[in-house]
Sequence to fold (624 residues):
Amino acid sequence: MFELIGVPPQMLFGQLTLGLVNGAFYAVLSLGLAVIFGLLNVINFTHGAQYMMGAFIAYILLTVLGIPFWGSLLLAPILVGIVGIAIERTMLRKLYHLDHLYGLLLTFGLALVIEGLFRNQYGVSGQPYASPLPGGYNLGFMFLPKYRGFVVLASLVVCLGTWFVIERTKLGSYLRAAVERPDLVQAFGVNVPLMITLTYGFGVALAGFAGVLAAPIYQVSPMMGANLIIVVFAVVVIGGMGSILGAIITGYMLGIIEGLTRVFYPEASSTVIFVIMAIVLLIRPQGLFGTAK
Amino acid sequence: MNNRTLIAFIAFLALAFVAPFFLYPIYLIKVLCFALFACAFNLLLGYVGLLSFGHAMFFGGASYFTGHIVKVWGWPTEISILAGTLMAALMGLVAGSIAIRRQGIYFAMVTLALAQMFFFFSLQAPFTGGEDGIQAIPRRPLFGVIDIYNDMNLYFVVLAIFTFGFLVVYRTIHSPFGQVLKAIRENEPRAVSLGYKTDHYKLMAFVLSATLAGLAGATKSIAFQIASLTDVAWQMSGEVVLMTLVGGMGTIFGPVVGAAVIVTMQNYLAGFGEWVLIIQGVIFVIVVLLFRRGIVGELSAWMDRRNRRKEVAQEEIAESDAAVGAKGHSA
Fold:
């Protein structure tokens, strides 16, 4: 078997796939954060907890009601979205007139509550979730598990779909207008508060969707979102939240870089994204795709 | 110090001197360590308006460093605490120069990410002891004479360290430097237009805050003889935010009260497992939605209102007196 830069190709491509899968999650999660931040000016700290909720709802639907993965893929994001809408209506809404930091603090508190409740119920150890697509393809140079391929594909479809709706449709144009001047858009007869609620619900549903996708790959555990969300924050800082496409590209790119690091210098794989963040901040503080403000 | 602050400070010192004779000294030491940590954090959030979500890296970094040089290098206690504090200052300089490049929400995310990076470093670095942490850190006599294995002695040493840190924060806030910090908090572009290099001021405040957080962490590692991953985890950063928020950000005593409340709560609820997390989250939500001024903030607002009512009442009396006097003269 030939070797590539001193690394067996199975390992290289294996880690690349894993990186691509991680990148798929980073992309969907940072996309949700960017959509929410655009309209609400709130950094949704609950995003990680909502991602975890998505995975747990899929797990509960399977074990209690016997609903298979494909049903959960549709149901769980809707349920997580509804919880998100309730949060926006009852709490988040009251903070829009204040400093943005309060939104961050509120959602941080909510994340603690949600994670605490699940830990109380299920403990800290992970629950297994069987892969709905067992087996894989032998591509000659590597083995590609079917489900991982599906995750990357599904995340791409959702990301590009979201990008299309926001950048290329009438509804998206209202949304973009409301990001710039909510007061004017409201004056034109668009129900901006409703739009804000639905946007939050949608962003949160994206987190729930990522959670369902993650359930068969990682174990379903109450803390699965807490550590991930911090990495996603770093991804968001690197990309800058100005552009939807930027969030998606940055997500995939960093996933792949992380995967490559795991091949060539495994000790740094958990910190590489933070190091990149520091470098980007020093060279281009507004982020790769952000606009100077 | 104005009258009210001075009275409160004297009352606090009196209380602090009596407390160890009635309460468990180790518990009080914990309160003091976290109070200093929260005061350091409040300097940044309350007076510069910068929300750092990564202060655990300074607290925990100093804790590890102090623990290591006391235990492995065998340095004297007082020098080790000083070295740990300096380490935190250095880390504050590095993290600060990166973080102040972004404002507001981004600042919070950047500090959180940097602290997480330090967490992973601590998890892997050989001298931190990984999951076990550095345990059984010796409490060598302070200056070679004060035996700090005696909890009572240790308590007064920690009280002295806390008071020093507290006064540094107080002095900073009430100096011309502190006035500029407040100007930056209120309106940064305006401060820039007045010719202040706001980035320098923000960085200095950040380093100072990190240094004092480090002092708290270094003291903690000696007092509790352990430095572990808990000290650098993001939950620790969240806790100090909570303490400051509950007590009242931007108030002198708020962080102290907040630290006392949260540490006490953790002590009582220690047996309830995950409920501590849930209750802390609920407190976060309640404070953000309903009591944004915190305990001390609400209290001093209430006292201000009462004083104003009194003043108004006195003015009315004075006015009616004057009116009566005028009548008397004319008669």
Remarks:
- The radius of gyration of chain B is 22 Å.
- The longest helix of chain B spans residues 294-330.
- Chain B touches chain A through 39 residues (CB under 8 Å).
